[in-house]
Every structure is written in structure tokens, then in C-alpha cells.
Write a structure and sequence with these properties.
heterodimer, A: 8-stranded mixed β-sheet, 54% helix, B: alpha/beta, 8-stranded mixed β-sheet, 20 helices, 59% helix, 11% strand
């Protein structure tokens, strides 16, 4: 029996670039908060998009409440390191060090896995401290997520002693517990996003301890016609009928028919990819559908709309 | 969500020698670098542009991609392709019904392989080379540090260009956290090799501890990672440093190539807010660095007939008077209630798409304040599965 998505403690939301990863992360977090869960949503990419989805100013490492029970932050590995040192070493070393930048560059760039572990470590720490009911991470794209999630193992292999090594045990415990942690992969019903999703499913299983929580098929176009209606449309689309119709409505109908044809073709091309996604996912993987939104922008309005669709899919 | 105010001024002026079209741009330049955020269609656009150049301009054209898309390989009539350049078989062009004036070649960036090649080239002797390649940190570090993927992409580009094999190289850039990472990668690589940090790391361990044990950063690094790991890293970099001169020279040469007059950048974006914002950021970054912005290509743009004002009224009428219209239409179309449903659906769908098309048009106006060339690729309803499809896309941006 799969764990209910929002009953987990930590969700990493990933996906190929451009599929709406941040939209889904923001909406999942909003939905959880709407249902009374104290929720943290954090973005890893330094692009600063997350703020747009809630219509708030730039987010920072220090989380802030954006709506009741919903907190947002953005990852900053240098800040994460500082917090880590303060919590772990419990000595006022940080104060003496002044700018941490040079040390940090060294630690982050020269030592493999350290930057990754500082990133996911912060979120794992929040889970460990039970500061929130749910932590949603707008994680890196499909190409980089396994490196990030596998960082604790990499550190265990490469580093024999030291603070970072000591921390990997509890991190792996949380990461590897399906009741607590899961990955949500966002896919658009197009060829490459579906390919990358399926590849990532295999890679997650092979290289990380983290459970696949769900796949979200985002921007699914509506089905315009039933089979019988499509035959009617094809007849309408013929020039003679188009002219009759244009006359009847007092305006050009051609662009409208072309628009419908485009919508039908798009839907049909994409349904092939969607079907492949459905068939090739491991049995029992929850697949949530979010429709394409014909909307003005990707602001708070869209976040609320997507949250409502997700609520429906999750049976709320 | 899209702010262009700070860009408008810098973009209004047209640079001297404006090229006017993608066709001219590709005819005049030797290196064309496609950049933009993930998922906007960089790889496809780059391949389409290169294919067009091979067909119409002739010469040897290479498309260097970072995306191991099987579909692209298949579209080019290849099973697969890798780090070594492969020629697209003339048969693929024949199938598309064109006779190219030149040749189209394709290569994919294999980061690990390229790093190995670099080590082979720069290592002072076989023993050092083998020690580096066998070092357990090597794979990890080449995969991660100093945005090595970005660096490798630019370094490969330089290498291929300098080889004098191709008339035109069209590159698609790796997806980066930050669009400008790869622009800075060569410099950063040079900085890294010249850094105090690396020098510190590679002084013998004993004197390092003696002279620097009191330094806070050593304390922190030691506490976090442990001395043993620091030793491992030091050993690795000691080996790596033997390649210092080669690397720094190379990185500088790569930087020069990017800024060369024969190099240009094509920014690819869809008309959604996030990719557009990144595109604008990138356009500014190019200007700041004195690099040449050749064109902006807008991909997956909805057809402009969605904006037809007359059709808007017609679509509304279809929705509002569907039943009445269905009764007036010839009965052989189908049962009137079914016809009415179709009319409503068709009208609704048009108005829905129009909302998106209007948003796109607005963003397009904001964006086109800037560049020399702006080209749009309409939404392709079908997947591109062959060279004909690529060329059809290329045709859209060509003039």
C-alpha cells in the first residue's frame, strides 16, 4: 500500500527543465498547508522563481511564512554550512572566521558531494527536528537529482572521518524511509520529458535509497471530441461547411477550425507519450494528472488552480 | 512577471553590421552557440539551423550537442552518435528530398571521455597520466568541480574549431543552474588552477599543517572532512597541478574564442515567463561581457491566427448560438445536438488558446525590443522524427 503523498515528511520534486517543476512543488506545498499541515517549501536552484508562484518578494535561506502554515525559503549552501557549523560544533568559530567564502569555495568545489550534502542536509535536518509536518523541495532537474540524493553514500565512500561523514548515517535513515521521504517526478506529455522520467525512475532505484512517491503528468491537454464528434468536426472542417458557418456567425471560422485541429493533433501526439509513461512506470506508482491551464501567467492564481487539481487527483 | 525595463535601453541600439536573418548570421559566423533555459528546444533548434546551413550554404557544418537525444540521432538517420564526430549520411538528406550543398556532421559531448582526452593531452608523462586516470577522486571531481561540464563543452568547442575541420560549428549548451555558468567556466578553471587554495592544498602536508593549522579555514575543513580526506584531495591535486600550464593556456584560448568576432550567440526561449526571464538575463550577460548576441529564437509559439479579432467574435457566437447554428447547418453533418456540442467545443477551445496566444504576443513585444534578429518557430503539433521535419523547422527561422 503506497504511502499517501502528503503524509510523507519530505518530498523532492524534480523533472526535466520546462515541465513545470516549480509549479508542482509550490502547489503541493500550498495544498498541504491548506489542509492544516505546517509546510516548508524550499527551492534549490538559485533562479528565484519560487517567490513568483506565491507573489512574494525574493526568498532567502531564512524561511518566511507566505500564507498560514506555509513557509518558503531558498537554498544557499554557504548559509547552510554556517548553520550546520553553529548547530554541530557549538563553538563561536563562525563568528571568528569573518567571510566564510574562501573556505566555502574550497569545501564546496574541491570536495565531491559536500555541496550536495549541505543542500539536502538542511532539508533532512528540518525533517529530523520535526519542525514541519511536510517539507517540499523544488529540487534540481532530472539530470542532477541522483547526484544530490546519492551524496550521503558518496561521502561515506570517499570520506573516512570527520563531521560530514558522521552525519551521513541519520541522513540515509530518513532518505531511505518511504514513510518519510519520496521523489515526485514531474513530466510533460512530450517525448523527451517522458524519456527522462522513465530513465530517472531506473536511476533512482539503482543509485539512491529514495522511494519514488509519485509522477505528475503536467499540462495535459483536454480531449476536445468524442469519437462521433470528431467525425462531425471533420465534416465541418470542409470548405463548403466552413463558408456556411462563417456566414452564419458573421466572422471568419477558419482560424477557429484550424485552432481546433491543432488542439486535436497536439492532444493525439501527446497521448502517445502519456500512454508510454503510464505503461512503463513501475506498477503501483501513483500517476497524477494536471491539465494544461489556459491562463495569463504563472503566478499565485496558477498555483492555486494547480493545487485544486492535485487535490482532486489525490482524493481530497 | 517579466521585467524588461532595464533591458529596453541597452537593446534599442542596433549594433553595426547587423546580420538581419538567421541565414545571414549562419553564413557569416564560424561558431554559433545556442543557449537558453532547459526544455525550450535548444538541441532541436541548433540541429535545424545546422542542417539548413549544410543544405543551403554548403561547406562542412558540425552540430555539437550535449543532449543524448536518441530521437535526434534517429532524425539524422543515425543509430547513435558520440564524442567523435559522425557524418549524417547523404541518404538521410535524399529521403528528405534535398540535395545538400555541404556536409552535416554531428557529435555529442561526453564529459568523462573529454576529460580523459584532456588528461592525455596535458599530462607531463604516462605515469602521471595513469595515476590521474586511476585516482578514485578523479571521476567524482571531474563530474562536479568548477562546473566541469560547462568547461568541457567550451573546451571541446575550442578544440574542434582550432582543428580547422569545419566551416561552421553550431553548439547547444548544457543545461546549467545558471545560464551564464558556461561563459565563465574557462576563466573559473584558470582561476582555480592559479588559486592560493590549490597551492595550499598541494604544499607538502607537514608544512601545510605547521604553517596553516591556525588558519580558520583549515580548522573548518579539517573538522568537516577530516585530515585523511584532505590528504586524498591534496594528493590528487598534486597530480593535477602537473597539467597547470596546459590548462591555463587552454582556458585562456577558449575565452578568446568565445569573444571572437566569428562567434555569435543565439538565445532560445519559449514565450513562458520563466524561460523568458532567463533569456533576458542571458542577453544582458552577453552584453556585459562584450559577447555577440546574434539572434533570439522563440520556440513553440502559438500561431498568430489565434489573435484574429474577427474570429474572436465568431468563436463567441459559436459558443452562444451553438444549438441554433446546428439546426441551420446541413443535416448530413450529424445529429444536431452532437453538432452543437462540437461547435461549442471548437469555439471554447479557440478562446482558451487565445488567452495564451495573447500572453505570448505581449511577451514577444517586450522581448523584441532587443536583438538584431528575432525568429519564431510555431508550435509543432507532431514530433520531429526525420531530417525533413528538422528542415521544416529550420525553414521557419531561416529568413
Amino acid at each position: 500500500m503506497p504511502v499517501d503523498l502528503l503524509n510523507r515528511k519530505l518530498l523532492f520534486v524534480t523533472g526535466k527543465g520546462g515541465v513545470g517543476k516549480t509549479t508542482i512543488a509550490a502547489s503541493l506545498a500550498l495544498l498541504a498547508a491548506q489542509h492544516g499541515q505546517r509546510t516548508l517549501v524550499g527551492e534549490i536552484d538559485a533562479k528565484g522563481n519560487l517567490a513568483d508562484f506565491f507573489e512574494i518578494g525574493p526568498t532567502s535561506f531564512k524561511e518566511r511564512e507566505v500564507s498560514p502554515g506555509l513557509f518558503a525559503m531558498s537554498m544557499d549552501t554557504e548559509e547552510s554550512l554556517k548553520e550546520y557549523l553553529r548547530l554541530q560544533l557549538k563553538i563561536p568559530m563562525v563568528a571568528r572566521m569573518g567571510p566564510l567564502a574562501r573556505t566555502f569555495d574550497f569545501v564546496a568545489n574541491a570536495a565531491p558531494g559536500v555541496k550536495e550534502i549541505l543542500t539536502i542536509g538542511k532539508f533532512l535536518w528540518e525533517v529530523r527536528q520535526r519542525s514541519y509536518d511536510l517539507v517540499v523541495v523544488d529540487a534540481v532537474a532530472t539530470g542532477h537529482i541522483t547526484g544530490q540524493l546519492a551524496a550521503p553514500q558518496a561521502i561515506q565512500e570517499l570520506v573516512q572521518v570527520g563531521l560530514v561523514r558522521d552525519q551521513t548515517g541519520w541522513m540515509l535513515d530518513i532518505l531511505g524511509d518511504p514513510a518519510q521521504t519520496g521523489v515526485v517526478i514531474v513530466a510533460a506529455p512530450e517525448e523527451m520529458p517522458v524519456n527522462e522520467t522513465l530513465e530517472l525512475v531506473d536511476k533512482l532505484a539503482a543509485e539512491t535509497v529514495v522511494d519514488l512517491a509519485a509522477v505528475v503528468a503536467n499540462r495535459v491537454l483536454p480531449e476536445l471530441f468524442s469519437r462521433g464528434e470528431e467525425a462531425v468536426f471533420d465534416k465541418l472542417n470542409a470548405t463548403a461547411n466552413e463558408q456556411v458557418l462563417s456566414k452564419a456567425v458573421g466572422g471568419p471560422v477558419r482560424p477557429i477550425l484550424d485552432g481546433a485541429q491543432l488542439a486535436v493533433t497536439l492532444r493525439r501526439t501527446r497521448s502517445v507519450h502519456l500512454a508510454r509513461l503510464r505503461e512503463e512506470l513501475p506498477e503501483g506508482t501513483p500517476l497524477l494528472y494536471v491539465p494544461y491551464l489556459f491562463q495569463r501567467s504563472h503566478g499565485a492564481r496558477a498555483t492555486h488552480q494547480v493545487a485544486a487539481h492535485l487535490a482532486e487527483e489525490l482524493g481530497f | 512577471m517579466v521585467s524588461t525595463s532595464n533591458l529596453a535601453t541597452s537593446r534599442n541600439k542596433k549594433q553595426a553590421g547587423s546580420t538581419g536573418s538567421i541565414e545571414q548570421l549562419l553564413a557569416a559566423k564560424e561558431i554559433v552557440i545556442h543557449c537558453g533555459s532547459g526544455g525550450v528546444g535548444k538541441t532541436t533548434t541548433a540541429a535545424a539551423a545546422a542542417a539548413m546551413a549544410a543544405v543551403h550554404h554548403g561547406g562542412k557544418v558540425l552540430v555539437l550537442t550535449v543532449d543524448p537525444a536518441r530521437r535526434l540521432a534517429n532524425a539524422l538517420g543515425l543509430e547513435a552518435f558520440g564524442n567523435v564526430e559522425t557524418q549524417v549520411p547523404p541518404a538521410a538528406f535524399a529521403e528528405a528530398g534535398v540535395e545538400p550543398r555541404g556536409e552535416l556532421w554531428v557529435a555529442m559531448l561526453d564529459t568523462k571521455q573529454s576529460w580523459d582526452d584532456l588528461v592525455h593531452r596535458h599530462a607531463p608523462d604516462p605515469a602521471t597520466r595513469d595515476a590521474i586516470l586511476a585516482n578514485p577522486l578523479y571521476k567524482n571531481i571531474t563530474g562536479r568541480f568548477v562546473q566541469s561540464h560547462d568547461y568541457i563543452a567550451m573546451e571541446r568547442l575550442y578544440e574542434i574549431h582550432a582543428s580547422g575541420t569545419y566551416d561552421l560549428i553550431v553548439v547547444d549548451t548544457p543545461p546549467t543552474r545558471n545560464a551564464i555558468d558556461f561563459l565563465e567556466a574557462p576563466e573559473r578553471m584558470a582561476d582555480f588552477f592559479s588559486s592560493r587554495l590549490l597551492r595550499w592544498l598541494t604544499v607538502p602536508a607537514r608544512s601545510r599543517v605547521l604553517s596553516l593549522a591556525s588558519k580558520p579555514f583549515y580548522l573548518v575543513a579539517d573538522r568537516i572532512l577530516g585530515s585523511k580526506f584532505l590528504e586524498d584531495i591534496a594528493e590528487f591535486f598534486l597530480l593535477f597541478q602537473t597539467m597547470y600550464d596546459g590548462f591555463v593556456d587552454r582556458a585562456e584560448a577558449v575565452t578568446r574564442t568565445l569573444a571572437d568576432k566569428r562567434t555569435t550567440f543565439v538565445v532560445v526561449s519559449t514565450l513562458e515567463s520563466a524561460p523568458v526571464r532567463e533569456a533576458e538575463f542571458f542577453i544582458d550577460a552577453l552584453e556585459e561581457r562584450g559577447l555577440h548576441l546574434g539572434a533570439v529564437v522563440l520556440n513553440k509559439v502559438l500561431p498568430t491566427w489565434f489573435l484574429d479579432k474577427g474570429a474572436t467574435g465568431a468563436a463567441k457566437a459559436l459558443c452562444a448560438r451553438a444549438d441554433q447554428l446546428a439546426a441551420e447547418l446541413p443535416p448530413k453533418l450529424g445529429p444536431p445536438d452532437q453538432v452543437a456540442r462540437v461547435l461549442r467545443e471548437v469555439g471554447e477551445s479557440f478562446l482558451n488558446f487565445q488567452v495564451v496566444a495573447k500572453r505570448e504576443a505581449e511577451i514577444r513585444v517586450e522581448l523584441s525590443a532587443a536583438p538584431e534578429v528575432i525568429a519564431s518557430v510555431p508550435y509543432f503539433a507532431r514530433d520531429i522524427t526525420d531530417l525533413a521535419g528538422l528542415l521544416e523547422l529550420g525553414q521557419q527561422i531561416w529568413r
